[in-house]
Amino acid sequence: MISLTSPVKTRAHDWPAGAKLAGLCAVTCGLFLIQNLVLHAAVFTGVLLLSALPGRAFFFASIRHLRLLAPFIIVIAIWHLWTYDGAMGATIILRMLSAVALANLVTMTTKLTDMIDVIHVLTRPLARFGLRANVLELAIAMVIRLTPVLVDKGTRLSEAWSARSHRHAGWRIILPFTIIALDDADQVAEALRARGGFDA
Amino acid sequence: MEKNVTLIALFAALIAALGLIPPVSLGFGVPITAQTLGVMLCGTVLGAKRGTLAVLLFLLLVAIGLPLLSGGRGGLGVFASPTVGFLIGWPIAAFVIGLIVEKWRGAPLLIVAGVASVLGGIIVMYVFGITGMSVMLDKTLLEAAKIALVYVPGDLLKAGIAAMLTSALATARPASVLSRVDAN
């Protein structure tokens, strides 16, 4: 599975992940304190410049990640044109774009392994409540490994369906799909136990 | 222990896999994805505690940069977008759904799971989702609700499917519907 980390290497890839995350939190909170439209426009221009620094490919990738905001931009734009309050609408849209773009920048410049290290540090206090680091790590690895397996099995189920029917399988295959998943879980758990389980 | 962790990881993977089912459009252009169905199933099948953990594990993987949300979305950006409230509501919805299915034993599982999915997967989820939208988009709760309500018909459909699936699963693999099994 491919993580959203950008293959284009930037200087920010080497910065400590924890610092980037803390900075992101601070800036995002800051964005909600600013009410000035010009300032928001300046921030967003700055974010765009930051995204453009590592080159074309990186810039276009970061713009692509903003597409998910399109429906909200449209709704807010129509809403505020309707209420004759364009400046307010523009502020909301720019703030939303800057916040999401900045967060994406952190994701794009941080390796998955660095993120997992941060999780290690953040979840350390939870050890008191019984959360074991090795169990969490294995669970993360299992999700990453099992997702493509499940997707593959789902694809095969829907192929089997379309071989027998001209109608679309849709939700009807979710039941056999879930049963397969549950049976897989049984086998994986058994295999884990056979290898000594979490205490091995 | 191994079984619990495997099931939690597996249901997190199930939410991810359901995200790859292409969204169905409900006639008036609102896309509905199967992912919240996964959240409902976490609650109805795994129960409150394990269901919540499965959803949290899934969100953790999204946050560290895996594109597991429907449409290949992921990373920290989704937690800064207007729909963040729904994501925060996911684990709580799974918890509420799981709790209802665990505690309410007097009625057929189909009805219990359906009511639980509506209460947790729609009411609880929308309370968080609408609050999130109202904060992120600077709207009053009522205004944000108007934007969010287009998704309700799709979610009602998913609650129905979640209920049918849960009761069918209880027949096919009774030992795996942990919300109704007291074993650990």
What is shown here, in short?
The complex is a heterodimer of chains A (200) and B (184). Chain A is an all-alpha fold and 200 residues long.
Low-confidence residue ranges of chain A: none
Radius of gyration of chain A, rounded?
23 Å
- In this structure, how is the largest beta sheet of chain B organized? 2 strands, antiparallel
Query: How many strand units of chain A?
Result: 0
By DSSP, the count of extended strands of chain B is 2
> What is the mean predicted local confidence, pLDDT of chain A?
87
Strand order across the largest sheet of chain B: 1-2
**What amount of the residues of chain B lies in strands?**
under 5%
How far is the first residue's CA from the last residue's CA of chain B? 8 Å
Give the helix/strand class of chain A.
Answer: mainly alpha
Overall geometric form of chain A: extended
Number of helices of chain B: 7
Which architecture of chain B per CATH?
A: Orthogonal Bundle
Main beta sheet of chain A: none
- Taken together, the total number of domains of chain B comes to 1
- Average predicted local confidence, pLDDT of chain B: 87
Biggest protein-protein interface? A-B, 66 and 55 residues
**Unreliably modeled segments of chain B:** none
Radius of gyration of chain B: 16 Å
CATH C-level class of chain B is Mainly Alpha
Can you characterise this structure?
The complex is a heterodimer of chains A (200) and B (184). Chain A has 200 residues and is mainly alpha-helical. Chain A is built from 8 helices and no strands. The longest helix of chain A is centred in the last third of the chain and has 32 residues, at 133-164. Chain B is built from 7 helices and 2 strands, in the order H-E-E-H-H-H-H-H-H. Chain B has helices at 2-18, 35-46, 48-63, 84-103, 109-136, 141-148, 152-172; strands at residues 24-25, 31-32. In chain B, a hairpin with a 5-residue loop joins strand 1 (24-25) and strand 2. The interface between A and B is large, with 66 and 55 residues.
